[in-house]
Write a structure and sequence with these properties.
Structural class: alpha/beta
Largest sheet: 7 strands, parallel
CATH class: Alpha Beta
CATH topology: Rossmann fold
Number of helices: 10
Shape: globular
Strand order of the largest sheet: 3-2-4-1-5-8-9
CATH architecture: 3-Layer(aba) Sandwich
Strand content: 15-25%
Helix content: 40-55%
């Protein structure tokens, strides 16, 4: 069966689509067959990134790796129960198709709680929660005492992940590997950065997730979206995309992320 990598965070702007795209290219370049599902049915940032990539290839007359994509739609049935059943069936059919053709499937969830997102979390083999390095975004994971920064308890999102874990356990599936990705970490040592790090370490022990360094705050990650490229494509894609020191450092962050995820059967290309 395909290994399901789900990127979930109920707050927008955390870097889910950028992370999804770089992970896809890293996996594909290591010889894996990769599928992609974008569950943000409104914005579809992950699929927009891939559309930009297809357009870039056409303009440059070059070939770059692309994933097998399945586009899901929201049910239009009036009955809540019937709509839920229809979406469950569509999701199951998509995973069955991916199982036949892919080694890994990357599922990008919306910044909101939806039925599709809930199903993806329950099905995940690896759950990645990218979050910006701030106390505002840490609220996604836990409630914090404003006076002393102590973790008071898990958030609604963390409780949802816990329930998804219970569903997997009852189904006899292997436990999900939950990874919290600290994105947009400031280069400077700051009080807020230390508080977030301390609170996250405390919470990780209490509810069971791994902390992995993500991507620093770099302009290059935003610049690449319009061309559909990633930092791993720049040498192959050409088009005047030079490798500055900032790009080399950012590319190394991508490789370190892939190594830290420790996905089965994946060898990160140097």
């Amino acid at each position: 069966m395909a290994h399901l990598i789900v990127l979930g965070n109920e707050k927008g702007g955390s870097g889910k689509s950028t992370t999804s795209m770089h992970m896809f290219v890293a996996l594909a370049r290591s010889g894996q067959r990769v599928g992609a599902i974008d569950l943000d049915l409104r914005q579809r940032s992950f699929f927009r990134y891939l559309e930009n990539r297809a357009a870039y290839m056409q303009r440059r007359a070059i070939n770059l790796v692309m994933p097998h994509q399945i586009r899901l739609e929201a049910s239009k049935l009036d009955s809540v129960a019937a709509a839920k059943a229809e979406e469950e069936e569509r999701f199951a059919e998509a995973l069955n198709e991916m199982d036949r053709t892919c080694d890994f499937v990357i599922i990008d969830c919306p910044g909101a709680h939806t039925r599709y997102s809930q199903m993806a979390h329950a099905a995940a083999d690896t759950l990645i929660t990218p979050m910006n390095d701030s106390l505002v975004d840490f609220d996604l994971l836990a409630r914090v005492d404003p006076a002393d920064g102590r973790v008071l308890g898990p958030s609604i999102y963390s409780e949802m992940v816990w329930k998804s874990r219970q569903l997997r356990a009852r189904a006899g599936l292997t436990p999900v590997d939950w990874v919290v990705l600290r994105n947009r970490v400031s280069m400077l040592e700051a009080k807020n950065k230390r508080r977030v790090g301390s609170a996250m370490e405390d919470l990780s022990k209490r509810i069971g997730f791994r902390i992995v360094p993500g991507f620093s705050e770099r302009v290059v990650f935003r610049e690449l979206f319009l061309s559909g490229l990633t930092l791993l494509d720049l040498k192959e894609a050409g088009g005047g995309q030079g490798l500055s020191m900032s790009k080399i450092a950012a590319r190394q962050e991508v490789r370190e992320l892939m190594r830290a995820l420790n996905l089965p059967g994946v060898t990160v290309i140097a």
